[in-house]
Amino acid sequence: xxxxxxxxxxxxxxxxxxxxxxxxxxxxxxxxxxxxxxxxxxxxxxxxxxxxxxxxxxxxxxxxxxxxxxxxxxxxxxxxxxxxxxxxxxxxxxxxxxxxxxxxxxxxxxxxxxxxxxxxxxxxxxxxxxxxxxxxxxxxxxxxxxxxxxxxxxxxxxxxxxxxxxxxxxx
Length: 171
Ligand SMILES: Cc1cc2nc3c(=O)[nH]c(=O)nc-3n(C[C@H](O)[C@H](O)[C@H](O)COP(=O)(O)O)c2cc1C
Prior knowledge:
38% helix; 6 helices; globular; binds flavin mononucleotide; alpha/beta; Rossmann fold
């Protein structure tokens, strides 16, 4: 079983990247974490053939059993960098081959230094995941507030999500 973590922040000290690493260090599955600095702005003129970085990411998605998205909340929604990547991933690969997210198992999560978690970004992502025909884990919803204090392996939100991953990945 292989998990692919996609981080929606480009910041070196990103809390979402830290959360991804925390999950990676505490699960019993192989997990690769990707960040999105090499994904170009989506442009229909560049789609076929798609840029190398997009083709590589699509392959990683195809070769993973589960995609775990770690997204900050920007202005009550998801960051442009993540939406841009999902626009690439959501496009058919060719006339014969569909898009790579279809039927993939997906877990959503996010962390913010703010008091209210990343529930608005999370809900945006739920809509996108439905549109992309993914197999989304509905609960628990891992949106963590007060990042400075909550990014510890014994945090109960994180523990619950790891247990849920185990059940979901085996379904
Ligand atoms: C453009 C911008 C908009 C933001 N909007 C929100 C927001 O709507 N809700 C929130 O909780 N935090 C918001 N923040 C604060 C981020 O949660 C914070 O910068 C966080 O550290 C970003 O995630 P990262 O640490 O993974 O980079 C915003 C930050 C930026 C730069």
